[in-house]
Automatic annotation (TrEMBL):
<dbReference type="GO" id="GO:0046961">
    <property type="term" value="F:proton-transporting ATPase activity, rotational mechanism"/>
</dbReference>
<keyword id="KW-0406">Ion transport</keyword>
<dbReference type="Pfam" id="PF01813">
    <property type="entry name" value="ATP-synt_D"/>
</dbReference>
<dbReference type="InterPro" id="IPR002699">
    <property type="entry name" value="V_ATPase_D"/>
</dbReference>
<keyword id="KW-0813">Transport</keyword>
<comment type="similarity">
    <text>Belongs to the V-ATPase D subunit family.</text>
</comment>
<protein>
    <submittedName>
        <fullName>AT3G58730-like protein</fullName>
    </submittedName>
</protein>
Length: 73
């Protein structure tokens, strides 16, 4: 009976350890999901808008250079 009791205690300790690991992993997953959502919904759109703005400015500069060269010729 004592051996079974010791074995049961060992199993319970292992189970508690696994449960703690599971909870830690669950929190890490939640944190990662929040970061992914922030990147997808905030950072990515801002970067896309910035890229679009820069492309527009570069196109405008290219047009200005083209007309400037046309005037010179």
């Amino acid at each position: 009976c004592r051996v079974a009791y010791v074995k049961a205690i060992e199993v319970l300790v292992e189970l508690a350890s696994l449960q703690t690991s599971f909870l830690t992993l669950d929190e890490a997953i939640k944190t990662t999901n929040r970061r992914v959502n922030a990147l997808e919904n905030v950072v990515k759109p801002k970067l896309e808008n910035t890229i679009s703005y820069i492309k527009g400015e570069l196109d405008e500069l290219e047009r200005e250079d083209f007309f400037r060269l046309k005037k010179i010729q």
